[in-house]
Amino acid sequence: MIFKRCLGLALMFSVSLAVGQVWAGSIVIKGSTTVLPVAQKVAEAYMKLKPEVSISISGGGSGNGVKAIIDGTTDIANSSRFMKDAEIKLAMSNNVYPVPFAVAYDCIIPVVHPSNPADNLTIAQLKAIYKGDITNWKEVGGPDLKIVVVSRDTSSGTYEVWEEKVLNKERVYPGALLQASNGAVAQAVSNNKNAIGYIGLGYLNNNLKALMVNGVKGSEETTLNGLFPISRPLYMFTNNWPKGEVNDFINYMLHPQKGQKLVREAGFVPLY
Question: For position 24, what pLDDT does the model report?
């Protein structure tokens, strides 16, 4: 995992930050709902700078973004995880050679309804809740109420990171309510006093209560210094080294004074 993260960062830093040649046209971006608000904010600023360029962005999950880059239906695949070995092999068999660009950092925050008195859970407690071994809030410092478990669907990169870092590759229990996006998880938890879910840092709002994990609050600082245990880089993948307008957009995204400032405004953690 460290190698994959370093590979993405190495490729990211090797991109020239100079403004590239102007190429009028369109860019299609698909994939992760975690990366979605970052891509939308940067694309909006980019299109103001270059009104001759049209950028189309849709979510659907990291898995769908990766699938789209493999089958040639997107220029950029947003992903909140690195591509799997099987996906890379499938891409190469289709004459697609994915290039990763780390574009931001994120931490996955467990969230509950603001009325819930619980404020901290350990990784072991989160695992037990999501496996269905802990079923009542009173077992972890909350009220005597049944826990409603809200999770992302399996096409989500956020789910796969949660599965790796919290569930230790075990599956979420069958009674969990599966949601297709970070926004859907946030809404489900904000509307249910018994619920617990997990979302990217940029999706926190006043209708949710963020829980500490192992006594550590998820933040920009604890993401960058590695203290928060459920952190990850966020990626954009292109087919081969990007050219033309796609290359120019990636450069804009990675520029410390341009796209990376907008990463922070979107609620996520910039690279620099």
Answer: 56
DSSP type of residue 146 = B
The DSSP 8-state label assigned to residue 169 in this structure reads: T
The per-residue pLDDT for range 229-248, each reduced to its tens digit, is 999 999 999 999 999 999 99
pLDDT, tens only, 19-78: 333 345 899 999 999 999 999 999 999 999 999 999 999 999 999 999 999 999 999 999
CA distance linking residue 59 with residue 56, whole number of Å:
11
Return the CATH superfamily for domain 2-105+233-265.
Periplasmic binding protein-like II (3.40.190.10)
What's the CA gap between 104 and 80, in Å, rounded? 10
Of 268, 264, 139, nearest to 196 (Cα)? 139
Q: Which two tokens stand for residue 172?
A: 């979420």
106-224: which CATH architecture?
3-Layer(aba) Sandwich (3.40)
Q: Which pTM does this prediction carry?
A: 0.85
Dihedral of the alpha carbons of 70, 73, 66, 93, in degrees to the nearest 10: 0
Q: 69-104 pLDDT, tens per residue?
A: 999 999 999 999 999 999 999 999 999 999 999 999
Q: 48 in helix, strand or coil?
A: helix
- Tell me which residue has tokens 């954009």: 236
165, two tokens: 């870092």
Looking at the chain, the domain(s) classified CATH 3.40.190.10 span: 2-105+233-265, 106-224
CA dist., res. 41 & res. 267, Å (int) = 11
Residue type, 82: F
Q: Bridge-partner residues for 239, per DSSP?
A: 98
Q: Are strands 177-179 and 53-60 parallel, antiparallel or unpaired?
A: unpaired
